[in-house]
Design a protein that fits this description.
By secondary structure, the protein is of the alpha/beta class. It has helices spanning 11-17, 53-65, 95-106, 142-159, 173-183, 204-210, 230-242, 256-265, 276-287, 293-307, 317-326, and strands at residues 27-33, 40-41, 49-51, 70-75, 111-116, 129-132, 138-141, 163-166, 190-197, 246-250, 270-274, 311-314. The structure holds ligand PBG.
Length: 327
Amino acid sequence: MNRPRRNRRTPAIRSMVRETTLSPADFILPMFLHEDPVDTAIDSMPGVTRWCLDSLVREAGEAHALGIPAVVLFPKIEDALKSPLAEQSHHDNGLVPRAIRALKAAHSTLCVITDVALDPYNSDGHDGIVHRGAHGELTILNDETVDVLCLQALCHARAGADIVAPSDMMDGRVAAIRDMLDGEDFTHVSILSYTAKYASAFYGPFRGALDSAPKAGDKKTYQMDPANSREAVRETLLDGAEGADILMVKPAGLYLDIIAKVRETTLLPVAAYQVSGEYLMLKSAAAGGWLDERAIVLESLLAIKRAGASMILTYFATQAAIWLREH
Ligand code: PBG
């Protein structure tokens, strides 16, 4: 008789037949930062902190020492520096370029990834430049935004970023950023594209962390409809052709079918972002004493990897790396 249970009989056998394993090298730690000299606990994301520059460098170093290869930076920009054209997004002495330089100076082997999108810098709170029509209707301008994203990517590359990650979902931005970087001798800087980024309600806590929610309207004219999966394949083919190095799916846990589909469509590495709302769901279930935090977090990350992601952006990165070491 065929007995699949033989392969589950002992821990040793199970460890030999295991198809997917997690390692700290799979994780990318998203980090929030601000200009203030002190760290601030983020109300909308219990257990997550917005760091001042010194703490950012220290915390990134601790994560790196645990085997986490990369961090991705998300700045909270003061209201006074926000504008309709988001000029602060490509200021060489802005918060992000200074953070990149500080991180690279302190931890030469750490991979520094930056988010390329205008929302933290844009007084309208959108990822792109907003145009108001005669009747007050909002349009997010595509090509005008791409021009600014290219300046932002270049500014991050000049500061020493290893990877730029456009999260804006404008059309054609991967090719434009690649051209800009290549033309300025940054052929070695990679593009991690948010390829299939959905208009998800699970980004709410993140927008609270950065005070970056859209002032009017929503993001549905550029982020994808959660109802669609063939469209993710279309975006995958486009970003691959435009020269992206890594393709990302976001959110992750509720979009495992999309991760699997993107994995089957491309030969490029696939990343997935376990977003703020996913973090909050797991964290609050654990805080209520209803579910075992370590078990649910590691299972959620394993599922994302099993679906086809080679790397996972997760707010649990440091904690998960510690848990995996204890194994
Ligand atoms: C902004 C950006 C967002 C996230 C990453 N980059 C928010 C958004 O698109 O509104 C969300 C991350 C999270 O929820 O953890 N371009």
